[in-house]
């Protein structure tokens, strides 16, 4: 079982790396967001996290779309659907971990933050939520343009919504902002528990969507 | 002047059709003699070497001999299968059977439901009514897609080989061997997105075989392949059939019809 998941994870990671140009654009974006707002620590980190959420959810979405072609055949060949999904998520999590490490290093070198561990936690949680969201949208929509627009819709709302309005909590990356505020401004400004709870709830919704969609076997 | 490449092609096609060496030699001598005496161009008079070879092989009853190789055990049994999409009937009470070690060709016009029927047999889609029974593991080759556009052929070999318990190295070795049988060097091949349509189809056929299925379902499998590759594809399929494999091939090609053990025609819904 483990070897199958590892193999599929390695292939997912390899396929993502092959999209060099797309990947480069998606990775440059968080860095660009960061540098145009690096004069204020909180704003810089929130911008970076925002970019990471957009980039990773898009990569996860693309990975889901590619899987629609190959996974049904692999299942016919004897692979378990759970191994395929676990392998794909493993490959994406490895990518998320690398991004967390890389962007964490950038912040550590370039900023004077109160809690670097808090920032790393924010990156890590945002990465996992982004992977969940991209995978969930990829299980519902089969066309790249449609899925990318839906992700843009979420990202756009996230950027313009007032984070203190109650309805902003309905957005998938509310937790990212909350954890970022906790890391930069301290526990009196942001709640670690609320941020983590929101992230867990978002992942729960994504898991329900992915599992429900996984019941239909087909090529698209 | 005699076109020797046409005669070579004829010899090859006769061999593929199972005509033995002695008979092939006789046919070639006769054909060459006729062309010399008449001064006719081989292609102008006989048409493509492939077609002429199959006509000769049919006359020698080689295809019939091949057909008799299949045994009577039913591997696929589809009974009264119907399917509609948004009120449009695609399949209407279609039935067919495939015996062990046979090659069944599904034919019919575009939109007749050949691909849908294959997907239903593969279990990738549910029929609205009717029953489908398949005795054995299935390998499926879709008309297009079914591969990861950003993985190399060797990556696909590893993934599909793993399902049959192969190590990564042995899966790559077997995949490369099958690729060579199809006239393709897959070892240094780029990612799927950079392969031609015909080469993708070769890869699709190879990965289906790597999972060691008992049944192969192939949807227009040699679309985009050149004539030599298509010929090699049939050789590979027959070799697999001789080891007991059963295949269902959807195709418009007259060539495929000549090579089948049985032909199922969809649209008129007749079966011969």
Write the layout of secondary structure elements.
The complex is a heterodimer of chains A (220) and B (272).
Chain A: H1 2-18, H2 20-36, H3 41-76, H4 81-110, H5 116-140, H6 144-160, H7 174-185, H8 192-213
Chain B: H1 4-16, H2 21-38, H3 42-46, H4 49-59, H5 62-67, E1 74-85, E2 88-99, E3 103-107, H6 114-122, E4 129-134, E5 138-141, H7 153-163, H8 168-181, H9 197-210, E6 215-219, H10 227-242, E7 246-250, H11 254-259, E8 262-265
Parallel strand pairs in B: 3-7, 3-8, 5-6, 6-7
Antiparallel strand pairs in B: 1-2, 1-4
Helix pairs in contact in B: 1-2, 1-4, 7-8, 7-9, 8-9
Helical amount among residues of chain A, as a percent range? over 70%
Which class best fits the helix and strand makeup of chain A?
Answer: mainly alpha
Poorly predicted runs of chain B: 62-70, 268-272
The string of secondary-structure elements of chain B, in order, is: HHHHHEEEHEEHHHEHEHE
N-to-C SSE series of chain A?
A: HHHHHHHH
Terminal CA distance of chain B reads 43 Å
- Report helical residue fraction of chain B: 40-55%
Radius of gyration of chain B: 20 Å
Find the structural class of chain B using helix and strand composition.
alpha/beta
Supply the number of helical segments of chain B: 11
Q: Main sheet of chain A?
A: none
């Amino acid at each position: 079982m483990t070897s199958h998941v590892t193999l599929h994870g390695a292939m997912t990671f390899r396929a993502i790396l092959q999209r060099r140009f797309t990947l480069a654009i998606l990775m440059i974006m968080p860095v660009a967001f960061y540098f145009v707002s690096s004069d204020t620590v909180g704003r810089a980190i929130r911008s970076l996290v925002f970019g990471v959420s957009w980039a990773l959810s898009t990569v996860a979405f693309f990975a889901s779309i590619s899987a629609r072609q190959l996974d049904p055949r692999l299942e016919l060949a004897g692979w378990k659907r759970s191994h395929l999904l676990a392998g794909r998520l493993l490959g994406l999590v490895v990518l998320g971990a690398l991004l967390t490490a890389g962007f964490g290093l950038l912040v550590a070198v370039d900023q004077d933050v109160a809690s670097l561990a808090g920032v790393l936690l924010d990156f890590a949680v945002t990465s996992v939520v982004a992977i969940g969201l991209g995978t969930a949208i990829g299980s519902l929509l089969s066309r790249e343009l449609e899925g990318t627009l839906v992700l843009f819709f979420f990202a756009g709302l996230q950027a313009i919504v007032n984070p203190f309005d109650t309805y902003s909590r309905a957005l998938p990356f509310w937790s990212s902002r909350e954890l970022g505020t906790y890391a930069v401004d301290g526990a009196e400004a942001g709640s670690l528990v609320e941020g983590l709870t929101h992230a867990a709830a978002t992942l729960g919704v994504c898991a329900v969507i992915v599992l429900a969609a996984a019941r239909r076997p087909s090529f698209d | 002047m005699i076109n020797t490449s046409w005669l070579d092609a004829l010899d090859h096609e006769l061999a593929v059709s199972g005509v033995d060496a002695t008979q092939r030699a006789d046919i070639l001598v006769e054909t060459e003699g006729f062309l010399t005496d008449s001064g006719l161009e081989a292609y102008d008079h006989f048409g493509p070497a492939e077609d002429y070879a199959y006509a000769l092989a049919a006359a020698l009853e080689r295809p019939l001999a091949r057909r008799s190789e299949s045994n009577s055990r039913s591997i696929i049994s589809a009974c009264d299968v119907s399917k509609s999409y948004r009120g449009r009937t695609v399949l209407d009470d279609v039935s067919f059977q495939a015996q062990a070690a046979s090659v069944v060709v599904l034919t019919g016009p575009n939109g007749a439901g050949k691909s849908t029927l294959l997907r239903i047999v593969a279990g990738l889609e549910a029929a609205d009514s009717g029953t489908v029974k398949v005795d054995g593991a299935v390998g499926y080759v879709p008309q297009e897609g079914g591969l990861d556009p950003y993985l190399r052929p060797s990556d696909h070999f590893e993934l599909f080989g793993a399902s049959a318990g192969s190590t990564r190295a042995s899966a790559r070795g077997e995949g490369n061997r099958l690729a060579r049988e199809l006239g393709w060097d897959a070892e240094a091949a780029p990612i799927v997105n950079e392969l031609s349509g015909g080469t993708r189809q070769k890869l699709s056929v190879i990965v289906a075989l790597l999972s060691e299925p008992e049944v192969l379902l192939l949807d227009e499998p040699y679309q985009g392949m050149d004539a030599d590759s298509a010929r090699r594809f049939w050789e590979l399929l027959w070799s697999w059939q001789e080891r007991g494999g059963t295949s269902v091939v959807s195709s418009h090609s007259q060539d495929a019809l000549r090579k089948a053990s049985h032909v199922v025609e969809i649209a008129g819904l007749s079966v011969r």
